[in-house]
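Design a sequence for this backbone.
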């Protein structure tokens, strides 16, 4: 186990004097009013590539002092939006403008860096202006040394004072400290700094580019997947850094935990449109579901009304009630012309459909159930070294049937090696590893080593299930968004996300009763991650997962192994429980876990304390079903009105008004949730 001092040191966040709150909501109004109001204004912008429309007549404003999350499926246009803002590409229609003096820094997914310098010198190159001032300062000092008195000396001293003031303002005496903070925070060691840039991995080059951007102290940041190449400690550090960056930022990210902790607004890019939602990621998911449900209900209500009116008109047009039928027809036609009805059925979101249950499995590969409570993996006193480097020593753990066991920690601490020990792919230097003989293990490695680059999507599936005919295989692949000619694509030409979907498809068909997963959410977009997590929640077998995805660890894991250089410790609960345990050691007065909330806003209880099943009868239980439906519709409309208010940039100029709006908004959401729960209970009762 870690000592208290070691935990404090190992998880110390190095960003200067910034305080991260549990929710971003309380920060937004005050920070926006305190910062100079710079604005990026995207007005009626359209953009297409090769005849394919990516963005169609979209408008949105981004404000300094506000952190915005940008989400949407891969290929929806998120990166295009950022490139329009930076001016790298021009809109086909519409305008993109920035406030005068508003400087924007951009981190692309594949940034370019110089390869001739060492890491230290390449990152330090952002201070070229500071070095120029330092050289000017030194030159003036030498000139003053050659003149003992006189008007020329006075003028030189004035120039020296001005240059010194500029040097200090530019961070001339603090840049080395900032360099150390940012390189250390992003996971670079002292030894890394002397490495030539050309020798760094792609991930290290991306981290170097991020370090350069953060050191430039740009007022507004555009970050496209900034956490892709960061381990869990570096992501936490970046989260802290951005929370203290009051210039504002827009972040494209699949890291839902980070989006929950940082952002005050979420912009969804989908189907060529932009939609703005107030609040963090969890609030976005909730409001989006409400909006979709409202649209679906309104469509059904309007369709039923129109069908009823048309039936009446048809029945009575030639009878005694002809005038009434004619009047109804005119009113209906007028309302249709004025677009008062929702006539188009809301499109269902196209996502992958994952199911690890036996329904998808052939009899000969059906899961073999393991006895409940049985230890299926036992590691006792294991040690592993590579040369002079010891990854871990004296590591012991037991994993029982049905357990959700997570492993996390910085890169290079032996997490993947531990999985390979369990799989029997490598041997331990000391200790004992035993795996139940009935364990049918399905392994999802970080790299797509189980795929044949020369094969096709269809051939990969048939290799697992040779008994499938083409129609059955293609039907199964369609659930993973491989349709039409997609099934004949070469595996080597697939994107990382597409390869991940093929591997998940194969994993399900293998019918394992034990899943060993190494960074399974890498390369998956958010909808795919959520579908995968839902499938894991329903999965009856045992899960052992290495992950840096904190949201995934929160949702899936119930016991956590944290590995560090030469150290390891186990914790009951998920990632948030682990963090609260660390914080409780340094803040014992705030250790009431039952009063704290996880990153998705759900109240968590201490391990071992059962949830109370009693439910107080609410006022909605006394309402009739039609009254409940009317109440729900009315609240959904009011919530929609609040979304428009929050999208108005002028609202954020009054911090007190924003606070009042948010309080009323939260009250409406709470009442709506209670009403919907009552409606569902009533519907289940018939």
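Sequence:
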């Amino acid at each position: 186990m870690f000592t208290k001092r070691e935990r404090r040191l190992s998880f110390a966040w190095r960003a200067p004097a910034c305080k991260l709150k549990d929710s971003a909501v309380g920060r937004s109004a005050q920070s926006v009013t305190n910062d100079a109001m710079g604005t990026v204004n995207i007005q009626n912008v359209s953009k297409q590539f090769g005849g394919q429309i990516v963005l169609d007549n979209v408008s949105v404003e981004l404000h300094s002092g506000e952190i915005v999350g940008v989400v949407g499926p891969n290929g929806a246009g998120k990166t295009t939006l950022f490139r329009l803002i930076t001016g790298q590409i021009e809109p086909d229609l519409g305008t993109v403008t920035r406030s005068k003096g508003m400087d924007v820094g951009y981190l692309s997914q594949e940034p370019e860096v110089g390869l001739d310098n060492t890491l230290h010198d390449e990152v330090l190159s952002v201070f070229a202006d500071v070095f120029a001032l330092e050289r000017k300062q030194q030159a003036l000092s030498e000139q003053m040394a050659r003149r003992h008195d006189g008007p020329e000396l006075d003028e030189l001293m004035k120039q020296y004072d001005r240059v010194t003031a500029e040097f200090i303002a530019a961070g001339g005496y603090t840049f080395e400290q900032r360099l150390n903070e940012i390189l250390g925070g992003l996971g670079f060691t002292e030894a890394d700094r002397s490495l030539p840039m050309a020798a760094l991995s792609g991930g290290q080059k991306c981290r170097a580019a991020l370090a350069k951007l953060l050191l430039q102290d740009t007022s507004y940041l555009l970050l496209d997947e900034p956490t892709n190449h960061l381990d869990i400690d570096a992501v936490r550090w970046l989260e802290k850094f951005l929370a203290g960056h009051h210039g504002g930022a827009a972040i494209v990210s699949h890291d839902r935990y980070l989006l929950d902790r940082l952002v005050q607004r979420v912009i969804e890019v989908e189907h060529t449109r932009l939609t703005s939602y107030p609040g963090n990621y969890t609030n976005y998911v909730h409001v989006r579901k409400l909006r979709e449900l409202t649209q679906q209900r309104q469509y059904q209500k309007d369709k039923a009304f129109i069908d009823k009116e048309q039936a009446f008109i048809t029945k009575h047009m030639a009878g005694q009630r002809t005038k009434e039928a004619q009047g109804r027809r005119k009113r209906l036609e007028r309302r249709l012309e004025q677009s008062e009805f929702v006539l188009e059925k809301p499109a269902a979101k196209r996502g992958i459909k994952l199911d690890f249950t036996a329904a998808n499995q052939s009899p000969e590969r059906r899961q073999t159930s393991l006895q409940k409570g049985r230890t299926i993996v036992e590691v006792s006193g294991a040690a592993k070294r590579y040369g002079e480097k010891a990854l871990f020593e004296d590591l012991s753990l037991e994993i029982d049937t049905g357990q959700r066991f997570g492993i996390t920690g910085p890169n290079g601490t032996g997490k993947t090696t531990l999985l390979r020990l369990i799989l029997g792919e490598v041997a331990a230097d000391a200790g004992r590893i035993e795996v139940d003989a009935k364990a049918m293990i399905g392994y999802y490695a970080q790299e797509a080593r189980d795929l044949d680059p020369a094969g096709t999507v269809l051939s990969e599936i048939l290799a697992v299930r040779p008994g499938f005919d083409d129609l059955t295989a293609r039907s199964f692949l369609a659930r993973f968004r491989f349709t039409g000619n997609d099934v004949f694509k070469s595996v080597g030409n697939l994107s990382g996300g597409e390869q991940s979907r093929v591997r998940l498809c194969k994993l399900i068909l293998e019918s394992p009763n034990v899943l060993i997963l190494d960074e399974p959410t890498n390369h998956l977009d958010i909808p795919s991650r959520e579908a995968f997590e839902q499938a894991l929640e329903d999965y009856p077998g045992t899960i052992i997962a290495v992950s840096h995805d904190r949201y995934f660890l929160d949702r899936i894991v119930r016991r956590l192994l944290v590995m560090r250089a030469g150290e390891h410790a186990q914790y009951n609960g998920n990632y948030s429980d682990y963090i609260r345990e660390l914080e409780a050691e340094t803040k014992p007065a705030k250790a009431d876990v039952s009063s704290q909330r996880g990153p998705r806003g759900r109240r968590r209880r201490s391990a071992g304390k059962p949830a109370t099943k009693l439910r107080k009868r609410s006022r909605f239980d006394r309402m009739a079903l039609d009254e409940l439906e009317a109440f729900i519709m009315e609240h959904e409309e009011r919530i929609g009105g609040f979304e428009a208010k929050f999208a108005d940039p002028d609202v954020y100029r009054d911090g007190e008004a924003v606070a009042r709006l948010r309080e009323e908004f939260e009250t409406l959401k709470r009442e709506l949730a209670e009403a919907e729960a009552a409606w569902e209970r009533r519907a289940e009762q018939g």
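The longest strand covers residues 52-63.
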